Amino acid sequence: MRDPVIETIQNNPAYKELRRKRNRLGFSLTLLMLVVYYGYVALIAFDKELLATPIGAGVTTVGIPIGMGVIIFSVIITGLYVRRANSEFDQLTRDILKGVKS
């Protein structure tokens, strides 16, 4: 037994556009995150000496800022997704709901 409201939403072109855009963005950001994260892990696995190189005369190594960069990158791409979701995706969702209510 299918709900007519759900069928109306699924047949709405704005809903199809929302799904397409959201899936494309999610896939792209996921791929970027995987490349950055597994690139860092591969660097740890295959070039430990580079990451162990001290910065200046201190005890901090090159691996610390690179690791922090991975964390900062993940925060940035999360922010990009949230920003787009709160603007474009929310507007499309409102348009879809208006079509269902009328």
TrEMBL record:
Signal peptide: none
InterPro entries according to UniProt: DUF485 (IPR007436), Inner_membrane_assoc (IPR052959)
UniProt keyword Transmembrane helix, yes or no: yes
One cellular component term from this protein's GO annotations in UniProt: plasma membrane
The organism's place on the tree of life at top rank: Bacteria
Pfam families, per database record: DUF485 (PF04341)
Alphabetized UniProt keyword annotations: Membrane, Transmembrane, Transmembrane helix
Ranges annotated as spanning the membrane: 25-46, 58-82
Protein name: DUF485 domain-containing protein
Organism, scientific name: Comamonas suwonensis
Lineage: Bacteria, Pseudomonadati, Pseudomonadota, Betaproteobacteria, Burkholderiales
